[in-house]
Amino acid sequence: MSASSLVFPGHPELPLLQGWYPEGGDQLAQAWANSGGAGMLRLPAFPDPEELRLRLRQFRARTSGSFGLDIRGVLGPLRESLDVAIQEGATFLLQGSKLSDGLRQALDGCTLPRLASVSGPQEARVALSDRIEGLILEGQEGWQRWMEELRSSCNQSVLANVEGSGASLREWFARGLAGFQVRSPRTLRDGEGVFSEFRRRLSALGGASECLESRLDPLPRLRIRNLNLPYPVVQGGMGVGVSWSGLAGAVARNGCVGTVSAIGTAYGHPEGVKFVQGRPNGPQELNSGPALRRIIHDALENAQGHGAVAVNVLCAINDYDRVVREAVDAGAQMVISGAGLPLGLPELTKGSDAALVPIVSSARALKLLCKTWERKHGRLPDAVVLEGPESGGHQGYSPDQCVDPAFALESILPQVIAERDQWGSFPVIVAGGIWDNQDIRRFLALGAGGVQMGTRFVGTFECDASNVFKEVLLRSRKEDIQLMKSPVGMPARGVRTQLLRDLEAGTAPRVACISKCLVPCEGGKGAMAAGYCIADRLADAYQGKADSGLFFSGSNGYRLQELVSVRELIETLTGDFGLERLAN
Predict the structure, then answer these.
(1) For the domain 3-213, what is the CATH superfamily, name and number?
(2) Could you tell me if 71 and 47 are in contact, meaning their C-beta atoms sit under 8 angstroms apart?
(3) N or C terminus: fewer CB in 10 A for the chain?
(4) Is 143's pLDDT higher than 70?
């Protein structure tokens, strides 16, 4: 098999496929196609055919080169959009290694060539059985072994994913590669041969310089206790089953803090758990120690030594002390704890080097916590999360305070920083309503050491939530995200779904209180007053039950439009496309 015998979709002059997606339109794809490569346009989770038609016509007005559509994150109907893509001149599609039944049906009979992104020989074999025309080999390690295996098993185009410098990659054309997917501007800046030629062409285009140079100053690192993290981003803990080993491990692997939620772990690994009427019988079963240990182990393994894996443990859960000890014993590098003040956390983690990060909602709370920790335990927090009233799930504020500008995150941050300064220099990490690189920079400029983001990570392939959960958020509108009553007596924020309508009609599922999840619920009294059991309804969301599930979301959840990989999201949030800092 040789490069000359392979077919690269769209026949670009230079066999280079765009591999990163900066925000702000389709300019990079246009520049890429106009330079003789193959540009890429990513489709939203629920594409609208007429909006796509307008987008492609505007794109085509500026380029006649080759471009493909990335359909990996599509959840909704695709057939009409594929017809539009063909009519408007798209030249190929990029898919994942596995297709849902809906996507497979939509692609049946589609005449556009398809590339599949794969991360190993097994995924390659699955993709090859699905009538694709080309493979993109993710990562750099094992290419030679891959090529030897693929040489004898397929005649399709094979491209290699490129990260970092491309100077030493020329030999791979001789091994039969049809081209490269370029994932980092540095590859073009430092590469030779085809990369150098492509860089020259991009540089000659007006307005294309951002393809080669970052327009943003790099974000600072985040230092917490003995952890030196490449990026100042903490993924928020989301239960039940929204952030477990898949999401937390991927976030850590890409240089940030990935956070495992310790609540409801029995639903992820039910082996050996005692269930009654389909529910874990009591808090020890609900928050299963063996299940938590397995989730933390898998997250650390997925992290591959990068970033940090934290565990979020709610102070309000029954069996709090046990769960904290089990999380630390299982290897959690950080314990994040809120929903009450974790005044005894240092004693529970004694002998461990895990970083301790409490969650507070005011300077007063931070003062009480620091005073207690210093007096009783002789230590201070390694960092603190300041959670504002725009976050998803339970709020540390009254309903009136949630909409009062005096309690907005930017209003209370200076007070908390001033209180922190009385005790030390540990980072203040802000949470609630943080959405993009601009938000991150705004709060860092106000004195924050980092940001915590939860809802934004729901829109990733690796998020452990069900596709139903993701679909509920991706389809939500601004008016759908509301405050609601909670069994714990504080307001919570989530998506208005059938459950809330049933609560209003008095037809919601009955409260059984089998798992005894939260102390403030008082054995089901709070659940009876609110009309629902929070553990059961969150578990239903994890299991994909749209009618009875509870779907928490931050105030910006309606802004989710597409599914992306964790890596791509972190690249977008940090402005470090190719995550070059990880390689340094």
Answers:
(1) Aldolase class I (3.20.20.70)
(2) no
(3) C
(4) no
